[in-house]
Design a protein that fits this description.
eight-stranded antiparallel beta barrel, 2 helices, about 10% helix
Length: about 180
């Protein structure tokens, strides 16, 4: 049986991004000396068979602060949440299986912040990725990223028991954006 993978926008990322934006506001007594940034790696793919639809999601998200003026080159350490999810839909029934973890200190080594393009090296536990160049558009930097078996949680026993394919190469994006306070 031939299966076809289709790229789709990660719904988890959209919900987490909206929540992070809502939490990014600052009170009137807080000085505007710190810029808060959101870093996201997100990828998802769906496959359709005669039995139903299977969707694999992969997400890494974290927030960090930089003191203004923001240096164009630097290294920042911050916690990240990592998520992998399998959603299976058959007829009118759907099941979701999720694995997630927090890594207390991820490292982002960046070059070009505040300029037209950005290059980053991201490390979380044993996982390291070199990303970029990412272009700046609509207030954020972004570029292509692939979530493969080397990204944490691919071998999670619960996901594997429900049919998560740890060998998939999920094509997605990385994004880095400054969160603008709502006042």
């Amino acid at each position: 049986m031939r299966q076809r993978l289709k790229h789709r926008t990660g719904s988890i990322a959209a919900h987490l991004a909206a929540a992070a934006l809502a939490l990014a506001g600052c009170g009137e007594n807080e000085p505007n000396r710190v810029a808060q940034y959101q870093f996201i790696l997100t990828a998802a793919a769906s496959e359709t068979t005669v039995e139903g639809v299977r969707t694999h999601d992969c997400l890494v998200i974290g927030l960090f602060d930089l003191t203004r003026p923001v240096p164009p080159t630097g290294v920042v350490r911050f916690p990240v949440q990592m998520h992998r999810q399998l959603w299976v839909s058959t007829g009118k029934h759907g099941e979701t299986t999720t694995a997630d973890t927090t890594i207390g200190e991820a490292v982002l080594d960046y070059t070009g912040l505040g300029q037209d393009t950005l290059r980053v090296t991201f490390g979380a536990g044993p996982y390291t990725a070199t990303l970029g160049p990412g272009g700046f558009l609509s207030g954020e930097y972004s570029g292509e990223w692939t979530c493969g078996p080397e990204v944490p949680l691919a071998q999670d026993s619960t996901l594997l028991a429900y049919g998560y394919d740890a060998e998939l190469q999920l094509v997605g994006t990385w994004r880095l954006s400054e969160l603008i306070p709502i006042q």
